[in-house]
Amino acid sequence: MQVACLSPSDRYLEENLSTLNYAARASLISNVPTKNIDPRLMEIDEQKRKIADLEKELKNANQHIQFLTQISEDRARRIQMLESQLKKEDLDPDSPNAKLPHIKKGRPYSLIHCEQSNLRHHHRRLI
């Protein structure tokens, strides 16, 4: 925006023309505003963004580790519970599992597998 002050008197004609010429030339000037940014401040802002991204990534990784740890602990508790049930059944003489052959340690224990093998054995005797 531009304001030019002129005098209505003929006495200041040359000054009025000079003001109008200046105003005409000044209106042809175009400016593009640029923000003065210190390169160090730009670098600091970039580092802050990186820190925020890394903190978010770390938080996600910690949550994932916590989730996996919880799953592992749940499985360990389940295994311990099943092993204790298995020991109780092996010690109980009235248990149907007491008649099954003992399985060596380190091998998986499966009632279904044992029952299937007993059925196969029984089936072979019938043939």
Provide an overview of this structure:
This protein is mainly alpha-helical. It contains 3 helices and no strands. It has helices at 13-27, 39-91, 111-126.
Element-level helix/strand string: HHH
How much helix, percentage-wise, in residues? Answer: 55-70%
CA-atom Rg in angstroms: 45 Å
| Biggest β-sheet strands, sense, barrel | none
Number of helices: 3
Number of strands: 0
Coarse morphology: rod-shaped
- Which structural class best describes the helix and strand composition? mainly alpha
- Counting structural domains, the number is 2
* Beta-strand residue percentage: under 5%
User: N- to C-terminal separation?
Assistant: 110 Å
Query: Which regions have little confidence, pLDDT < 50, spanning 5+ residues?
Result: 103-107, 119-127
What number is the mean pLDDT? Answer: 79
Brief rundown of the structure:
The protein is an all-alpha fold and 127 residues long. It is built from 3 helices and no strands. The protein folds into 2 domains: 1-30; 39-109.
SSE blueprint:
Elements: H1 13-27, H2 39-91, H3 111-126
Q: What tags apply to this protein structure?
A:
127 residues; mainly alpha; 2 domains
